Amino acid sequence: MSVLGRIDGKWGALAALVFVLVTGEGLAASAPSQPPTLVGFWYGLGEPGDPDIFYIDAFTADGKFHAEYRKCEKGKLIYQQTQSGTWKIADGVLTINSTVINGKPGKFDHSYTVEMLSGTEFHARLHDPDFLFVERRIPKFEFPDCYLGV
Fold first, then answer.
1. Does residue 91 or residue 29 have the better pLDDT?
2. Residue 12 to residues 4, 7, 23, 80, 123: CA-CA distances in angstroms?
3. What is the pTM for the complete model shown?
4. Residue 101 host element (H or E)
């Protein structure tokens, strides 16, 4: 007979719940944890040669990406660029192939070594020039207003 078969009353039920949680016999404990994924929206600050650029990268499960880069000065948007194309990760290397830049056909290919990836943050190093991108997961593709700073 299982532990749950010997329970009487609400205090017994509470004790059983605590037992299940502590011993790891609950459903959540038996579900395998999923590895972190790049799929989603990521906010970053800084580019090689310009620490004031801020950006959002959006990676979809089907291997597509969209990115937007902005720069503000004195509360005004002074630079904006968009890119879209494809992405993949293989053997710890993130490869981004842009095919559309600012709404027009264009080509921009870069590879980055993924140094860290969690559910909330990832670090990817561009090698030429050497630059570490640090991005944090955000809930949607939404930029802060320029007057708020970066």
1. 91
2. 9, 5, 16, 62, 48
3. 0.75
4. strand 93-101
